[in-house]
Amino acid sequence: ESVSFAKVKLTNKTNGNGQIMLNSLHKYEPRVHIVRVGTDQRRVLTYPFPETQFIAVTAYQNEEVTSLKIKYNPFAKAFLDAKERPDSNLYSRDYLPPQQ
Q: Does the pTM exceed 0.70?
């Protein structure tokens, strides 16, 4: 039987409900642990994925890198300046449709 993990949410906040907390500038390697239950002998198998190692970064010193993160990370879209957003009027709270 195949197993699929559609997505995993990562955070650097301690109150991330249902999210995995990471520390900035620490190296991580995703692993899957399979635990056999329901028998007298408990067995744990661990499958590391070294090709997916990464370093968590929460702040960038380079403005170009920050711009790229905002542009391509759907969770960073909130940081876009209104002037950079396409059709920024559509996202304004004060937007009213044209009167006829």
A: no
Residues 69 and 46 in one domain: no
Both tokens of 13, joined, read 């906040």
Contact yes or no for 11/20 (Cβ under 8 A): yes
Q: How far apart are CA 26 and CA 20, in angstroms?
A: 14
Strands 27-28 and 31-36: unpaired
Please identify every stretch of the chain with a pLDDT value under 70, giving residue numbers as ranges.
77-100
For residue 16, which of 46, 58, 44 has the smallest C-alpha distance?
A: 58
Residue 26 is assigned to a structural domain of this protein:
yes
> Which string of DSSP letters, residue by residue, matches 17-41?
TTSEE--TT-EE--EEEEEE-SSSS
